[in-house]
């Protein structure tokens, strides 16, 4: 049984979440809280498997409470966010502070949006509950490393050696499952990602230089009001340029294109020019943006010159598109289980025998750069 703590200052939202969650026989709402102070106290008292956390609350807001919980009693947290641009920016900040995912809270059309929330939240809660033990180990290990690093630096200057800090090893730390016979000549990198994606994507892009030699296209499962702020945030934090993709545009080397939420991103070769095309089709796709659409069109447009990366996320979106990419001679990288928030999308690629490399998140930038040796 998955124990959940529901935190929200709105009685309507608390009641809605409790009703939705307890319809699932595998979930028990172990407690509720109306502000951040109550959330911290009840989290320590009942030790839930997952917390759903509102942002704007009296006495102590959700971001402050989240930061305290991750420092004192790390637990999987799902933010309950407004779907506005301001709500998007706050939610992205929450994920930097340690929240694993988010759901959008009901707005004016409450009945319809509560029904949508019902389809979204229970699978997320059960998936993220499985990360509780790993999350605590991760934070405990991080605290120990920080303590060791601080001790090693006593009596020295502010610079520390990689041996003392346990810095990320180079790309050679992982071994590809397959060998690429011909010299790499990739012209595109396509990334499909979902649950846990924003901080994971930031980790990867922050490891890439501004002169990265090819364009990068990203399908991240997100609402339409989130992808613009997501792209702006990444652009301000990374050396490589990041933007939300326009309806039709010629793509350029050294630029990352984020698919607008609620639509799909296709790569098309039009008269020798590579174009990013934002489209509503296929309308029946389960996920919008769809990693399947992105990977398939990248494979069809560029064949062996396409590099596809599948990262953390629930479900199997991306596996059929990666199959097409592989059939056309492309190369596929999957994130490993240990570094995923949810090992769903990459697992589907690995289980289908489509992954050429399985890479930890902290090595992903180096693994990608290794395919552009001599070009950066």
Give the topology, please.
Layout: E1 2-7, H1 11-22, E2 27-33, H2 36-46, E3 50-54, H3 62-72, E4 77-81, H4 85-97, E5 101-104, H5 110-129, H6 132-152, H7 162-165, E6 188-193, H8 197-205, E7 216-220, H9 224-237, E8 241-244, E9 248-250, E10 255-258, E11 264-270, E12 273-279, H10 291-302, E13 306-310, H11 319-327, E14 331-335, H12 345-351, E15 357-359, H13 361-369
Parallel strand pairs: 1-2, 1-3, 3-4, 4-5, 6-7, 6-13, 7-10, 8-10, 13-14, 14-15
Antiparallel strand pairs: 9-12, 11-12
Describe, in plain words, how this protein is organized in 3D.
This protein is α/β, with parallel strands linked by helices. Helix content is 40%, strand content 20%. It has helices spanning 11-22, 36-46, 62-72, 85-97, 110-129, 132-152, 162-165, 197-205, 224-237, 291-302, 319-327, 345-351, 361-369; strands spanning 2-7, 27-33, 50-54, 77-81, 101-104, 188-193, 216-220, 241-244, 248-250, 255-258, 264-270, 273-279, 306-310, 331-335, 357-359. Strands 8-10-7-6-13-14-15 form a seven-stranded parallel sheet, sandwiched between helices.
